[in-house]
Amino acid sequence: MNPPAHGIRFELLRQDTSPPRYRVELRGPEMTWSGEATVSLEDGTISLAPFVPCEPPAWAVSILRAFLRSEWRSRRDSTETPWPTRITRWRSER
Question: H helices then E strands: how many in the chain?
Fold first, then answer.
C-alpha cells in the first residue's frame, strides 16, 4: 500500500475481543508507526503500547484515541454489537 501524499492513514486490525485489542499501523508520507491499542470495556480507557520506531505525532495519537473511544461508546450499552475486525481511516493534520 502506498503512503498518503499528506496526512496519516490509520489501519487497525483486531487481535482480541475481550478486552478489544488492536494492532495499529499509522502510515504517513515519510514514516510508518506500528503499535498496539487496548480498550477497557469498563470505562473506555485506551491503553497504547509504545510505537515503533518512535512515537507518532501527538495529533495522530489523539485521533487514534478518538476513533477507539467512539467505538467503545457505540458498544458500552450493548454486548451484542461486535467490535470491528478492521478499522481504516485517513486524516490530515489539524
Answer: 1, 5
Q: Which helix (H) or strand (E) holds 34?
A: strand 32-39
Phi-psi region of 7 (alpha: psi -120 to 50; beta: other; left: phi over 0): left
Domains in the chain, number: 1
pTM score of the predicted model: 0.90
Degrees, nearest 5: CA angle 58-40-72: 80
For residue 67, give its domain range. 8-88
Q: CA torsion, points 26, 31, 36, 42, in degrees to nearest 10?
A: -50
Residue 93 lies in a domain: no
Asked whether residue 1 is assigned to any structural domain, the reply reads: no
The backbone torsions φ and ψ at residue 19, rounded to the nearest 5 degrees and listed phi first, read -75, 160
- Tens-place pLDDT, residues 24-83: 999 999 999 999 999 999 999 999 999 999 999 999 999 999 999 999 999 888 778 899
